[in-house]
Amino acid sequence: MSAVFDLVHQDGRARAGVLHTAHGDVPTPIFMPVGTVGSVKAVAPDDLERIGAPIILGNTYHLYLRPGHELVGRRGGIHGFSAWPGAVLTDSGGFQVFSLSSLRKLSEDGVAFRSHLDGSKHFFSPEKVIEIQRALNSDVMMVLDECVPYGADFAYTEQSSARTARWAKRALEAYPPGTAPNLLFGIVQGGFFRELRRRSVEEICAMDFDGIAVGGVSVGESKHEMFDVMDFTAGLLPQGRPRYLMGVGTPLDIVAGIRCGIDMFDCVLPTRNARNGTLYTSQGKVNIKRREYAEDDSPLDPACGCYTCRTFSKAYLRHLYTSQELLSFRLNSIHNLAYFLSLVRGARQAILEDRYEAYYQSVAACYPEELARTLEGPGLD
Q1: What architecture is domain 30-267?
Q2: DSSP state of 366
């Protein structure tokens, strides 16, 4: 039995488990609401507790720039500073740094970059990223990696993935296992090449990380390519460690990822789309701004028990959105996050009862257009 992760049951490749953290156990599969700067947009910590979120995500890059990791550290880390009692995973900031291609310079030592806030100069090394996350005192820390841009050729991707592995080794040396209660996850890269994905899995999984993340997806590729990477890479990962697919995705992405054997997911989609009036329900997506809801007194989703669905009608939610009332952001975000968390709880129960394929098909049926796109386009080379 792992001290970090217990695999409770498996149905096909879908897994039900428990991730043990310093701030509580996290049942998997799990979706992590994104709180980039120490706050999940438009909702408060007690909202997150009520909808049953055991873990949220923060971002090293953004918290380092503002308000600063040392300031956060002096206030009890991210938990004390934000009054969040549950677990926190912090992304290394690698994706944010590498998305600023015009503001950064890459080297073997790390990456020099300019702040998108004020243009000031900064440097992230694998060791520095660990130092920042230890000050934040997140329960799960991610190593610095390079997120390879979509369309990168084999030679560039090979060079980048090899450097990511060297950086991972340096991060592990800076924070050896068992040093403190913060868990450390390695990240698999390799772009859209089977050979490089396999090589990256071998290199990262040979190191003593607490968990393994799959990076470099949802970077502009087709749904078919993303699902191909997800399926191929997950099939290579060791059974005894938690598996995290970074920055993905839609409800269909999540249930498909679980089907492949992924345990952990995060995405800004539920809160971002909530603020834009797109809501997810047990019957599929609802565009709450549509005129047809102006006099609709029914709840958004009769199958949902969240505060929004228990209390307000579609007509009122539409009124708030079209009036651009701030309450619209909160109520819509509460519902979307409740839906995503209910989705993974339902998946877990289906796995435990050996009926996951039927569960997957029932969710996929709500998103026929997206499902069709998973069959289009090239796969891995």
Answers
A1: Alpha-Beta Barrel (3.20)
A2: T
Structure tokens belonging to residue 360: 């997957």
The CA distance from 367 to 4, in Å, is: 35
- Closest by Cα among 57, 260, 69 to 142: 57
Active-site residue set: 91, 266
Strands of the sheet with 5-11, listed across from one edge: 5-11, 14-21, 24-28
Over the stretch 179-238, which tens digit does the pLDDT of each residue have? 778 999 999 999 999 999 999 999 999 999 999 999 999 999 999 999 999 999 999 999
Contacts of 374 (CB under 8 A, 6+ apart): 223, 224, 227, 252, 256
As annotated, the residues of the chain forming the CATH 3.20.20.105 domain(s) are 30-267
**Distance from C-alpha of 20 to C-alpha of 208, rounded to nearest angstrom:** 17
Whole-prediction pTM = 0.96
What separation in angstroms does the CA of 177 have from each of 31, 43, 208, 264? 25, 34, 7, 21
Residue 40 CB neighbours (<10 A): 26
